[in-house]
User: Fold EAL domain-containing protein from Bradyrhizobium aeschynomenes.
Amino acid sequence: MAGKNWQASDRNAFRARVVAAPMAAMATLTAALPGRAWAASSDFSPSSYLGTVEPDVLWKVLIGGIVVCAFLASVLIWIHSALRRTKRAQLRRNVFISSALNNLSQGLMLTDAANRVVFYNQRFLEIYGMSRADIPPGCTGRDLVELRRQRGLLHLTVEDYARQAREPDGCLTELPGGRVVRAQIFRLPTGGSIGIHEDCTVQHRLERELASTKQFLESVVDQVPVCVAAKNIDDGRYIFANRAFEQFSQVPRDQIIGRRPSDLFGDATAADIAAADREAMLAPGTTYCSELVVQRGDDKRILEAHRVVARNEKNEPQFLIALFDDATERRSLSRELENSKKFLELVVDNIPVSLIVESVDDGRYLLANRSAEIILNRKREDATGLTAADIFNPREARLIIARDEAAIKKRSLLTEEHPISTKDGLRLFLTRRVTVLGDAGEPQYLIKTYEDVTDRRQTESRMAHMAYHDGLTDLPNRAAFLQALSQMIEACADTDEEFAVLNVDLKGLKDVNDVFGHAIGDKLLIEVARRVHHVARGGVVARLSGDEFGLIIDGKQPEAGRALADQLAEAIAVEFQIDGKSIRTALTTGISVFPHNGSDPASLLANAGAALFRAKAKARGSITFYEPEMDQQIRDRRVLHQELSVAIKHGELSLYFQPQASSGRTVDSSEIIGFEALARWHHPVRGFVPPSDFIPLAEESGLIVEMGEWILRQACREAASWPKPLQIAVNLSPAQFVHGDLVALVHSILLETGLSPGRLELEITEGVLIEDFDRGVALLRRLKALGVRVSMDDFGSGYSSLSYLQAFPFDKIKIDRAFVMNLGRNPQSAAIIRAVIGLGHGMNMSIVAEGVETQEQLGFLAEQGCDSVQGYLLGKPLPIAKYDGVVGRAHDDVVATVRKTG
Assistant:
């Protein structure tokens, strides 16, 4: 149609040119002739009237006209020919253009200035499923749009379509079947328009897929907990940031895009980021890993960053993509985990037992502590990955593997003992195995601990033996003896059989220890035990205490018991030769008989002890059978012990004070210089209990320690209240040196009572030094360092007094009363007293004699130079109120009265 339109317009133009050519020729001719020749005049007439015109001229005019006409005709023919050639060329060009436009991939539609459709190509019809017959001649562009709307090819109004089509992106229309067409209208300079219609179904699908993929990727990247950001290489500005980066930087994403790190972080952090970016650009690989500290406000965060450089087709850096994770908490947890790991390794390595962990699947060792190296016989690092078969000898390996499999099968704790070869030889180990289950309940690991119990089992064996045997003589002890008694009673019950229980005491063991030392005493006990066991002919023999033995003898009683006691006495009477020293001793025996003297082990042994107590009281070396009245004595002694304990707690004890005076030839010339504090007990029922009864009982039971502390405190408190600064002497028991810190006790009492240390004199016996000489001397020196005075009581009654005097410088020596009482009757007593006085003065020690009861004794002591005296002649032990005048609280007449009564 467009070709026909173009042909019609060419034909009109040709016709116009043909008409114009003759007209132009006539105009030329007219101009060539004189004006009057053509003018309307009366002279004009046909040829008959040419009389006035020259014939030559007329012919010339005619010939010229013919020539002009011929020329014009030739011109017209040339023009016609040229127009036909032009028309054919134009037709060819139109056909070419029309063919080219019809073969475009886009549809075209042209309108003129009047909006009439002047052209549309074949692609236009194909896109909308139309034919040329569907478009009437003279159709306008609006009509064509309306036609499309009627056919359901457009859902917009004509105005909306025209407006959107003229926008840069054009108008997208979705056709039936899912095809999408993009229409764009452009205004032409002639006033018309051209519409371009393109089927962009594939492109639109790809765009949607691309948009969906982009949205998906952005959503995925946004959901990634790792910070992701991209920036331009040229200006370092961010072009992308995910939500994690937005949350980390605490800056909205729209404010991140287009900004540099320096706009988001501090200078130091921005400098670190820039340095890391440069390192990533220079790194040889595609990925660069780094770590940096980012200052975010007041908070410092540790980031682990991975940078990837994106390059273009010329391998030039174009974008920098950074992925980084906030590792602050992870590093903190990692440090805590590492510390926990080190702590656990330290704990595991210091567990006092061997620890091994092995895999259940293949039995390979996964973990072992340092203690396990003893069992593994190699370093634990070398044992990792090995199995029991690789480490132990075949026999032990089979045993270990079998027990491992049993523990895995049992799935609970399995404990047993078995020997394992080590570099120290075969050792006994207590092995504990426990199976660790996985999440599915299947065995995963086997934990084993090995504890070397070789020494423990040996110790337990020795302790079990010691529990029923004496450590020195290896004889059964009291517990074993009582057990044997129970067995004998059970065997003899409901029968007529009898047996005797012998309680045997070794005479003079204390003396042997004092004279020769405890080592000799121990050897003596061993020899005595050997002889006793030999005499008993394999019967039951036990060591009940330090110097007591117990025996059981069956047979007719009391004959069998006495016969054995006599045999023991004869065997022990034979002199012992120990380390070149000859020692004689004897046995004292108490005997009880079953069933007459008891039906249980405790009663039989207690009654034998009661008989022994009576035998000792009778004579050393005697043999005594139990008698019923002995029970009363034992019970009385036990009751007295209980009452003494109550008396100490309830304050039934009191202190009496006996004067100590300087030695004068008469009582009047002997000035009182101090007192000795002595304990007295007034029982609410028994009345006055003699010290000779309760003091030994207190010594035996250990109550002397508590009693001694009370005496010391009360004596110091009393002396501190005296107006006159007299001396106060207090006896100390050896038991007080053994139990507790005596020096600290004395010091605290002095501070508590306010007594000057120089006024306190502590009297000790040789027993303090006999038990533990070095310790006793050390304690005495510490006491002297407090400023108190120390004197030796009952000097001359022991065995090693001279060695004690040499080891420790006593302040005073107290001569035993036995020597003073024999003055005038025994010449040796006077000689001993002279020697002691001379010895003490030679060692710068003062001498005090106790037991002075006569004027003759006082005179002798004064004559020999004895420093001070004590006894009934000078004053009896009395309450301190009787000596108020002496201590400065009453008139001296009181003192005279006391001395007269004394």
Observations:
- Residues 1-50 have pLDDT under 50 and may be disordered.
- The CA atoms of residues 232 and 622 lie 119 Å apart.
- DSSP finds 35 helices and 31 strands in the chain.
